[in-house]
Every structure is written in C-alpha cells, then in structure tokens.
Design a protein that fits this description.
The complex is a heterodimer. Chain A has a single domain, classed as STAS domain (Transcription Regulator spoIIAA, 2-Layer Sandwich), CATH 3.30.750.24. In chain A, 34% of the residues lie in helices and 31% in strands. Chain A is built from three helices and six strands; from the N terminus they run ββαββαβαβ. In chain A, strands 1, 2, 3, 4, 5 and 6 form a six-stranded mixed beta sheet that branches. In chain B, 40% of the residues lie in helices and 28% in strands. In chain B, strands 1-2-3-5-4 form a five-stranded antiparallel beta sheet, covered by helices on one side. In chain B, a hairpin with a 3-residue loop joins β4 and β5. In chain B, α1 packs antiparallel against α2 and α2 runs antiparallel to α3. The chains are: A alpha/beta, B alpha+beta. At the A-B interface, α2 and α3 of A face α1, α2 and α3 of B.
Chain lengths: 109, 120
C-alpha cells in the first residue's frame, strides 16, 4: 500500500481538509508535504488532517508534519489532527509530538 | 523454531522499506507475537532501515533475523558508513526514540543496528 491524499477546501469551516489514505512514510512523505504546502499557498487557512484512513506513519512522516507546523508557526492558522488510529497515536506520544499538535478524537494509545 | 536465521538484502531505496516491514510482520507473526507486538516490530524495523539509509554509503542494506527460543534479534547492517547528512537530525532522533521505546534492547554500532525483543 502506498498513499493517496485527498485535499479539499471546506468553505463552511474555512479550512483545508486533508485525508491521507494509506501510509505516510519515507517513500511518500515528501509528496504528501508538497501537496499540503501547495494547497496552503493557494489559500491560507487552517489545516485539518483527517487521520481515519492513515494506516502507518514513520519518522519521516512525522518530520513532514513538523514541517507543516513550522510553516504555520508565525501565522494565525493552526493544524488539527483528527481521529488517528491508536497505533499512530502511540508514535505521537513516544516522540512527544502530542504536545505540539492539536490532536482530536480517536482513542488514546 | 530454534536458532532459525532469515537473511534479507534490500537495495538502499525508500520503496523497499515497506518490503522489510512486511517481512518483519510475517516473522513476528510466526514466532507468536500478539497484534501489538507485531505492529511494534514493523514500526521499529522501518525506523532501523531509515537510520541505516542515513548512515550507509553502500547500495544495499542487509537484515538478519535471528529467531531464538526466548527472543528475536534483528541486525540491520551495511559495510561502509559515510558522514550522516545534518548529523543528528530531528527525524533520526525521533527514529531512535521510537525504536528504543518499542524494543527491549537496541545497540548502535559503527556499521549496524541491533534490536532485541523478547517473546513473553
């Protein structure tokens, strides 16, 4: 399995909804990041990552998310990570990224 | 299942790391790890391969699984190391944190990373 990312703008919430389906890993993380950066540059808004169909992430994928976080650092916009699976939440906890990101929904690892 | 050795060699290309994860899952399943332990080994092996790619200047990386009665030992090795780009990058630090948290023992040597996980 690889990665297919759906990126849509939600006009009601005025936010980008990013739905990664598959794996954000060393093979896919740079393309994932590029797609999100491109969307954000097209229209500056909050980024909502819907994690429901994210099956796997590795340190390069986490690095890509940190890159996005840095991109928004000096702005009014935020990144939200929604409904990630317990196996992925576990990696956020191990690396203490749970303290940097706003993680909503999903079970705690 | 005593002292069985499984040896795999992969090209140093990112798309082969998922192959290592699949093999790792299969071996973890074979030795009776539960679902969570299987996932842990898969994740740790993915990180070990990423670390090896960052250090090795070879074209390939070798992975040896040693299936023992009470534990699984895996050695990821390469023959020559180069200077790691960006030295200790944030990502490689996260990789190490992940491996160390999920596995029972981790050893970083010059040209190899050895991980150990006991069978409960």
């Amino acid at each position: 399995m690889s990665l297919n990312t759906k990126v849509d703008f939600n006009y009601d919430g005025n936010q980008w909804v990013i739905k990664p389906i598959g794996e954000i890993d060393i093979y896919t993380s740079s393309v994932f990041k590029e797609e999100v950066v491109k969307a954000y540059e097209d229209k500056k808004a909050d980024l909502v990552i819907e994690g429901e169909y994210l099956e796997y992430i590795d340190s390069t994928g986490l690095g890509a998310l940190i890159g996005l976080l840095k991109m928004l650092q000096e702005t009014e916009f935020k990144i939200y990570i929604n409904n990630i699976k317990p196996n992925i939440r576990k990696l956020f906890d191990i690396t203490e990224l749970d303290k940097l990101f706003i993680i909503r929904g999903g079970e705690n690892a | 299942m005593l002292n069985d050795l499984v040896t795999v060699s992969i090209p140093k290309k990112p798309d082969y790391i998922s192959t290592v994860r699949l093999i790792s899952s299969s071996i973890a399943n074979k030795i009776g790890y539960n679902i969570e332990q299987i996932e842990d080994l898969k994740v740790a092996m993915g990180e070990a391969c990423i670390l090896s790619f960052g250090k090795s200047i070879d074209e390939e990386v070798k992975i040896v699984y040693n299936l023992l009665k009470e534990k699984l030992e895996v050695v990821v090795s390469w023959t020559e190391s180069g200077i790691e780009e960006g030295d200790e990058t944030k990502e490689s630090n996260m990789g190490k944190m992940i491996i160390e948290s999920l596995m029972d023992e981790v050893y970083y040597l010059d040209n190899e990373i050895k991980i150990v996980k006991y069978i409960e």
